[in-house]
Amino acid sequence: MTTTDFQTWSGALQTRMETVLAALLPPPEIAPQRLHKAMRYAVLGGGKRVRPLLAFAAAEISAADSQRAETAAAAVELIHAYSLVHDDLPCMDDDQLRRGKPTCHVEFDEATALLVGDALQTLVFQLLTQHELADSPTTQLEMVKTLALASGSRGMAGGQAIDLDSVGKALSVPELEFMHIHKTGALIRAAIRLGALCGRSLDTKETAALEHYAKCIGLAFQVVDDILDSEATTATLGKTAGKDVEQNKPTYVTLLGVAEARALAGDLHHEALQSLEPFGERAARLRQIADFIVKRQF
Asked: Which distant-in-sequence residues (6+ apart) come within 8 Å of 265 by Cβ?
Protein backbone atom coordinates (compact mmCIF):
# COMPACT_ATOMS: atom_id res chain seq x y z
CA MET A 1 0.00 0.00 0.00
CA THR A 2 1.39 3.40 -1.00
CA THR A 3 1.41 5.55 2.14
CA THR A 4 3.82 8.38 1.27
CA ASP A 5 3.73 10.90 -1.55
CA PHE A 6 6.10 10.49 -4.49
CA GLN A 7 8.43 13.33 -3.52
CA THR A 8 8.96 11.91 -0.03
CA TRP A 9 9.38 8.34 -1.31
CA SER A 10 11.77 9.26 -4.13
CA GLY A 11 13.81 11.59 -1.91
CA ALA A 12 14.24 8.87 0.71
CA LEU A 13 15.30 6.35 -1.95
CA GLN A 14 17.75 8.78 -3.55
CA THR A 15 19.36 9.29 -0.13
CA ARG A 16 19.37 5.53 0.47
CA MET A 17 21.01 4.85 -2.89
CA GLU A 18 23.74 7.39 -2.18
CA THR A 19 24.59 5.42 0.97
CA VAL A 20 24.35 2.06 -0.81
CA LEU A 21 26.52 3.15 -3.73
CA ALA A 22 29.11 4.71 -1.41
CA ALA A 23 29.37 1.40 0.46
CA LEU A 24 29.62 -0.72 -2.71
CA LEU A 25 32.28 1.39 -4.43
CA PRO A 26 35.93 0.78 -3.49
CA PRO A 27 37.13 3.17 -0.75
CA PRO A 28 39.37 5.99 -2.02
CA GLU A 29 42.15 5.00 0.39
CA ILE A 30 42.68 1.62 -1.32
CA ALA A 31 45.17 1.41 -4.19
CA PRO A 32 44.90 2.51 -6.92
CA GLN A 33 43.67 5.57 -5.03
CA ARG A 34 43.28 7.91 -8.01
CA LEU A 35 41.12 5.45 -9.93
CA HIS A 36 38.94 4.73 -6.90
CA LYS A 37 38.58 8.44 -6.18
CA ALA A 38 37.54 9.03 -9.80
CA MET A 39 35.00 6.17 -9.68
CA ARG A 40 33.37 7.71 -6.62
CA TYR A 41 33.44 11.16 -8.24
CA ALA A 42 31.60 9.81 -11.28
CA VAL A 43 28.89 8.00 -9.30
CA LEU A 44 28.22 9.91 -6.07
CA GLY A 45 26.75 13.31 -5.31
CA GLY A 46 24.29 13.85 -8.13
CA GLY A 47 21.70 12.51 -10.50
CA LYS A 48 17.97 11.83 -10.25
CA ARG A 49 18.55 8.06 -9.82
CA VAL A 50 15.63 7.35 -12.16
CA ARG A 51 16.78 3.80 -12.89
CA PRO A 52 17.07 2.82 -9.21
CA LEU A 53 13.63 4.34 -8.58
CA LEU A 54 12.25 2.19 -11.40
CA ALA A 55 13.94 -0.92 -10.00
CA PHE A 56 12.44 -0.35 -6.55
CA ALA A 57 9.01 0.41 -8.00
CA ALA A 58 9.11 -2.78 -10.10
CA ALA A 59 10.21 -4.71 -7.00
CA GLU A 60 6.89 -3.70 -5.40
CA ILE A 61 5.09 -5.50 -8.25
CA SER A 62 6.74 -8.80 -7.26
CA ALA A 63 6.82 -8.16 -3.49
CA ALA A 64 10.62 -8.30 -3.52
CA ASP A 65 12.87 -7.85 -0.51
CA SER A 66 14.13 -4.26 -0.43
CA GLN A 67 17.76 -5.25 0.22
CA ARG A 68 17.75 -7.37 -2.91
CA ALA A 69 16.22 -4.46 -4.81
CA GLU A 70 18.84 -1.99 -3.61
CA THR A 71 21.70 -4.14 -4.92
CA ALA A 72 19.96 -4.64 -8.27
CA ALA A 73 19.23 -0.91 -8.42
CA ALA A 74 22.87 -0.10 -7.65
CA ALA A 75 24.05 -2.41 -10.42
CA VAL A 76 21.93 -0.63 -13.03
CA GLU A 77 22.96 2.80 -11.74
CA LEU A 78 26.65 1.89 -11.94
CA ILE A 79 26.21 0.86 -15.59
CA HIS A 80 24.46 4.18 -16.21
CA ALA A 81 27.27 6.11 -14.50
CA TYR A 82 29.91 4.30 -16.56
CA SER A 83 28.02 5.12 -19.75
CA LEU A 84 27.94 8.83 -18.87
CA VAL A 85 31.68 8.89 -18.21
CA HIS A 86 32.39 7.32 -21.59
CA ASP A 87 29.74 9.39 -23.43
CA ASP A 88 31.38 12.59 -22.17
CA LEU A 89 34.85 11.69 -23.50
CA PRO A 90 36.32 13.78 -26.35
CA CYS A 91 36.06 10.79 -28.71
CA MET A 92 32.30 10.64 -28.04
CA ASP A 93 30.25 13.73 -27.15
CA ASP A 94 33.19 15.77 -25.80
CA ASP A 95 31.26 17.30 -22.88
CA GLN A 96 32.70 19.44 -20.12
CA LEU A 97 29.81 19.42 -17.65
CA ARG A 98 27.79 16.63 -16.04
CA ARG A 99 25.40 16.93 -13.08
CA GLY A 100 26.54 20.50 -12.52
CA LYS A 101 30.24 19.67 -12.14
CA PRO A 102 33.20 19.04 -14.48
CA THR A 103 33.01 15.74 -16.31
CA CYS A 104 35.25 12.92 -15.13
CA HIS A 105 37.89 13.33 -17.84
CA VAL A 106 38.06 17.07 -17.14
CA GLU A 107 38.39 16.64 -13.38
CA PHE A 108 40.93 13.80 -13.75
CA ASP A 109 42.15 12.92 -17.26
CA GLU A 110 40.99 10.95 -20.29
CA ALA A 111 42.88 7.76 -19.47
CA THR A 112 41.53 7.71 -15.92
CA ALA A 113 37.98 8.35 -17.19
CA LEU A 114 38.29 5.43 -19.59
CA LEU A 115 39.40 3.16 -16.76
CA VAL A 116 36.59 4.47 -14.53
CA GLY A 117 34.03 3.24 -17.03
CA ASP A 118 35.77 -0.12 -17.40
CA ALA A 119 36.04 -0.60 -13.63
CA LEU A 120 32.42 0.41 -12.92
CA GLN A 121 31.15 -2.03 -15.53
CA THR A 122 33.09 -4.97 -14.10
CA LEU A 123 32.09 -4.03 -10.54
CA VAL A 124 28.46 -4.41 -11.62
CA PHE A 125 28.84 -8.06 -12.57
CA GLN A 126 30.79 -8.74 -9.41
CA LEU A 127 27.82 -7.41 -7.41
CA LEU A 128 25.27 -9.40 -9.41
CA THR A 129 27.10 -12.64 -8.72
CA GLN A 130 28.29 -12.24 -5.13
CA HIS A 131 24.93 -11.22 -3.61
CA GLU A 132 21.80 -13.38 -3.37
CA LEU A 133 19.27 -11.36 -5.37
CA ALA A 134 16.64 -13.89 -6.46
CA ASP A 135 14.77 -16.97 -5.26
CA SER A 136 16.71 -19.28 -7.58
CA PRO A 137 20.14 -19.37 -9.26
CA THR A 138 18.39 -19.59 -12.63
CA THR A 139 16.58 -16.32 -12.01
CA GLN A 140 19.77 -14.67 -10.84
CA LEU A 141 21.53 -15.80 -14.01
CA GLU A 142 18.65 -14.24 -15.95
CA MET A 143 19.37 -10.96 -14.15
CA VAL A 144 23.03 -11.09 -15.19
CA LYS A 145 22.04 -11.88 -18.78
CA THR A 146 19.44 -9.10 -18.81
CA LEU A 147 21.89 -6.41 -17.74
CA ALA A 148 24.66 -7.69 -20.00
CA LEU A 149 22.37 -7.58 -23.06
CA ALA A 150 21.03 -4.16 -22.10
CA SER A 151 24.56 -2.78 -21.80
CA GLY A 152 26.20 -4.28 -24.88
CA SER A 153 26.06 -4.05 -28.65
CA ARG A 154 22.37 -5.03 -28.73
CA GLY A 155 21.56 -2.44 -26.08
CA MET A 156 23.13 0.75 -24.79
CA ALA A 157 26.54 0.47 -26.51
CA GLY A 158 24.87 -0.39 -29.79
CA GLY A 159 22.54 2.58 -29.46
CA GLN A 160 25.52 4.86 -28.87
CA ALA A 161 27.18 3.46 -31.99
CA ILE A 162 24.04 4.23 -34.02
CA ASP A 163 23.93 7.71 -32.45
CA LEU A 164 27.52 8.46 -33.49
CA ASP A 165 26.81 7.19 -37.00
CA SER A 166 23.69 9.38 -37.25
CA VAL A 167 25.39 12.76 -36.83
CA GLY A 168 24.44 14.99 -39.73
CA LYS A 169 21.95 12.47 -41.13
CA ALA A 170 18.22 12.87 -41.58
CA LEU A 171 16.66 9.93 -39.73
CA SER A 172 13.01 8.96 -39.89
CA VAL A 173 11.01 8.75 -36.66
CA PRO A 174 11.12 4.90 -36.69
CA GLU A 175 14.91 5.03 -37.13
CA LEU A 176 15.24 7.49 -34.25
CA GLU A 177 13.01 5.28 -32.12
CA PHE A 178 15.14 2.24 -32.95
CA MET A 179 18.26 4.12 -31.83
CA HIS A 180 16.76 5.22 -28.52
CA ILE A 181 15.14 1.85 -27.76
CA HIS A 182 18.76 0.72 -27.57
CA LYS A 183 20.70 3.75 -26.30
CA THR A 184 18.36 4.97 -23.54
CA GLY A 185 15.52 2.48 -23.38
CA ALA A 186 17.52 -0.72 -22.91
CA LEU A 187 18.87 0.23 -19.49
CA ILE A 188 15.50 1.57 -18.34
CA ARG A 189 13.88 -1.73 -19.35
CA ALA A 190 16.65 -3.62 -17.56
CA ALA A 191 16.13 -1.63 -14.36
CA ILE A 192 12.46 -2.58 -14.30
CA ARG A 193 13.12 -6.22 -15.14
CA LEU A 194 15.85 -6.61 -12.53
CA GLY A 195 13.66 -5.07 -9.84
CA ALA A 196 10.81 -7.43 -10.66
CA LEU A 197 13.09 -10.48 -10.79
CA CYS A 198 14.15 -9.86 -7.18
CA GLY A 199 10.74 -11.10 -6.00
CA ARG A 200 8.11 -13.68 -6.89
CA SER A 201 7.77 -14.96 -10.43
CA LEU A 202 5.39 -13.04 -12.69
CA ASP A 203 3.19 -14.85 -15.18
CA THR A 204 3.49 -14.34 -18.93
CA LYS A 205 0.77 -11.65 -19.11
CA GLU A 206 2.25 -9.71 -16.20
CA THR A 207 5.73 -9.87 -17.70
CA ALA A 208 4.47 -8.63 -21.08
CA ALA A 209 2.55 -5.76 -19.44
CA LEU A 210 5.58 -4.69 -17.45
CA GLU A 211 7.83 -4.87 -20.52
CA HIS A 212 5.39 -2.72 -22.51
CA TYR A 213 5.35 -0.13 -19.72
CA ALA A 214 9.15 -0.15 -19.73
CA LYS A 215 9.36 0.34 -23.50
CA CYS A 216 6.89 3.23 -23.47
CA ILE A 217 8.42 5.03 -20.52
CA GLY A 218 11.95 4.54 -21.88
CA LEU A 219 10.99 6.28 -25.13
CA ALA A 220 9.05 8.98 -23.27
CA PHE A 221 12.15 9.67 -21.17
CA GLN A 222 14.18 10.35 -24.33
CA VAL A 223 11.48 12.50 -25.95
CA VAL A 224 11.31 14.70 -22.86
CA ASP A 225 15.13 14.82 -22.70
CA ASP A 226 15.17 16.14 -26.28
CA ILE A 227 12.57 18.78 -25.42
CA LEU A 228 14.49 19.91 -22.34
CA ASP A 229 17.75 20.00 -24.29
CA SER A 230 16.14 22.42 -26.72
CA GLU A 231 14.43 24.65 -24.13
CA ALA A 232 16.21 24.51 -20.75
CA THR A 233 19.43 26.27 -19.75
CA THR A 234 22.76 24.67 -18.93
CA ALA A 235 22.41 25.80 -15.31
CA THR A 236 19.01 24.12 -15.04
CA LEU A 237 20.05 20.87 -16.73
CA GLY A 238 23.41 20.51 -15.02
CA LYS A 239 24.88 19.60 -18.42
CA THR A 240 25.52 21.52 -21.63
CA ALA A 241 22.19 22.58 -23.14
CA GLY A 242 21.64 22.53 -26.90
CA LYS A 243 24.54 20.15 -27.50
CA ASP A 244 22.56 17.84 -29.81
CA VAL A 245 21.63 20.68 -32.16
CA GLU A 246 25.17 22.04 -32.04
CA GLN A 247 26.52 18.61 -33.04
CA ASN A 248 23.84 18.22 -35.73
CA LYS A 249 22.31 15.13 -34.12
CA PRO A 250 18.76 14.05 -35.00
CA THR A 251 16.31 14.45 -32.09
CA TYR A 252 12.56 14.20 -31.62
CA VAL A 253 12.42 18.01 -31.56
CA THR A 254 14.34 18.45 -34.82
CA LEU A 255 12.20 15.79 -36.51
CA LEU A 256 8.77 16.65 -35.08
CA GLY A 257 8.98 20.12 -33.55
CA VAL A 258 8.36 20.85 -29.88
CA ALA A 259 4.55 20.67 -29.98
CA GLU A 260 4.43 17.29 -31.72
CA ALA A 261 7.22 15.93 -29.51
CA ARG A 262 5.18 16.92 -26.43
CA ALA A 263 2.16 15.18 -27.89
CA LEU A 264 4.22 12.04 -28.50
CA ALA A 265 5.46 12.08 -24.90
CA GLY A 266 1.84 12.38 -23.78
CA ASP A 267 0.77 9.43 -25.91
CA LEU A 268 3.60 7.27 -24.59
CA HIS A 269 2.73 8.30 -21.03
CA HIS A 270 -0.91 7.28 -21.53
CA GLU A 271 0.09 3.96 -23.10
CA ALA A 272 2.51 3.23 -20.24
CA LEU A 273 -0.18 3.85 -17.63
CA GLN A 274 -2.67 1.66 -19.49
CA SER A 275 -0.23 -1.24 -19.47
CA LEU A 276 -0.11 -1.10 -15.65
CA GLU A 277 -3.86 -1.61 -15.15
CA PRO A 278 -3.57 -5.37 -14.39
CA PHE A 279 -1.36 -4.64 -11.37
CA GLY A 280 -3.71 -2.34 -9.49
CA GLU A 281 -2.24 -0.67 -6.40
CA ARG A 282 1.02 -2.62 -6.70
CA ALA A 283 1.97 -0.38 -9.63
CA ALA A 284 1.31 2.92 -7.83
CA ARG A 285 4.99 3.89 -7.75
CA LEU A 286 5.51 2.98 -11.41
CA ARG A 287 2.59 5.28 -12.28
CA GLN A 288 4.12 8.08 -10.23
CA ILE A 289 7.50 7.64 -11.93
CA ALA A 290 5.79 7.78 -15.33
CA ASP A 291 4.21 11.08 -14.31
CA PHE A 292 7.56 12.39 -13.08
CA ILE A 293 9.44 11.40 -16.25
CA VAL A 294 6.96 13.03 -18.60
CA LYS A 295 6.20 16.15 -16.54
CA ARG A 296 9.68 16.92 -15.22
CA GLN A 297 11.18 20.34 -15.88
CA PHE A 298 14.87 19.38 -15.66
From this structure: 220, 223, 224, 227, 294
The whole-angstrom separation of Cα 285 and Cα 180 is 24
Q: Which residues pair with 101 in a beta bridge?
A: 98
- pLDDT band of residue 2 (cuts 50, 70, 90) is low
| Nearest partner of 46 among 83, 9, 77, judged by Cα | 77
pLDDT 10s digits, 178-206: 999 999 999 999 999 999 999 999 999 99
239 contact partners, CB below 8 Å, separation of at least 6:
95, 97, 98, 99
Cβ 164 vs Cβ 92: under 8 Å: yes
Prediction pTM value: 0.94
- Residue 4's pLDDT is 86
Nearest Cα residue to 58 out of 150, 188, 184, 219: 188
Which of 35-39, 69-73, 121-125, 227-231 is predicted least confidently? Answer: 227-231
Q: Specify the pLDDT at position 230.
A: 84
CATH of 6-295, one of 3.55.50.30, 1.10.600.10, 1.10.8.60, 3.40.50.300: 1.10.600.10
Mean of pLDDT values over 222-231: 90
